Amino acid sequence: MPTFILSAHPARRYERKSLTGTQIEYGQKVVPSVCIEARTVPEIAEQARAFGASVFTAAPRVSFLVSVQMARGERKPRGFDVADRAGQFHDADWIHTEIECPVRHVDGPGVRMWGSRLAPFQMDGQDPFWPGEEPDDFTSPADGSIGLYGYLRAVNARVQRRTDSWQSLFSIVHEVPLGDRYAARVHPFDVAAELLAGRLSPTSAAA
After folding, report:
1. Taking Cα atoms as reference points, which of 52, 66, 69, 60 lies closest to residue 24?
2. Which is nearest to 20 in space by CA: 128, 121, 95?
3. Cβ(160)–Cβ(154) under 8 Å?
4. Considering just the CA atoms, what is the radius of gyration of the chain in Å?
5. Which of the listed residues 33, 53, 85 is the one where a domain comes to its end?
6. What global pTM score does this model have?
7. Is the same domain home to 121 and 199?
8. Cα–Cα distances in angstroms (integers) from residue 93 to residues 47, 57, 116, 142, in the given order
9. Which of 58, 65, 124, 170 has its Cβ near the most Cβ atoms within 10 Å?
10. Is residue 126 part of a domain?
11. What is the phi/psi pair of residue 64, to 5°?
12. What range does the domain containing 67 cover?
């Protein structure tokens, strides 16, 4: 059975005005590489996903890329190169994407990282928002998305600051997460202002 080598390298993706790119430290490894055996592209993809998940468990706050290489002397299965180029081996699922020059909001910092299901949300000049070891009020609404979790925390922090109280996002709307606003990359400050102005209904908040 063909043998493949799975490795996890520190990496980061950056966004600039006119381009995006990825910096990969191929000379470094987050964890030791592992060898797997697989006959088909779907089998490789499943084991690569499982490997990436195990790396994430071992180093949950590290941005990394998973590489899949053929062992010496082995032949690639049909469709390997096409699947690799299409990202079917989950190679970039755990990379954090940073906006190198975030546009400042009129009332404060811009967003440096919007995050994703497996990457955190971060305001410029602040630490990324990461879920804690124990579930909190934002865990369930985030539905497993680390990026959305941080986004909700950022909106909540803005609501509390604007009201000068411990009033939370959940006292304003009954249905969270604000998935539509997050997907559209609406700044947390603007969402908080919309909520406080009463223009965002519970129904639209759940979309």
Report:
1. 66
2. 95
3. no
4. 20
5. 85
6. 0.85
7. yes
8. 14, 14, 9, 18
9. 65
10. yes
11. -150, 160
12. 3-85
Residue 201 counted as domain residue: yes
159 Cβ contact partners less than 8 Å away, ≥ 6 residues apart: 167, 168, 169, 172, 192, 195, 196
Sign of the CA dihedral 186, 187, 188, 193?
negative
User: Helix H segments across 32-145?
Assistant: 41-58, 80-85, 139-142
Burial 127-137 (b: 16+ CB within 10 A, else e): ebbebeeeeee
Please tell me the total number of residues recorded for the chain in this structure.
207
Element (H, E) at 35: strand 34-37
- Tokens read off for 178: 């604000």
pLDDT along the chain (207 residues), means of 10: 94 89 95 95 96 96 95 89 92 94 95 96 97 91 94 94 81 68 95 78 45
Same domain, 119 and 184: yes
Residue 120: closest CA among 111, 109, 133:
111
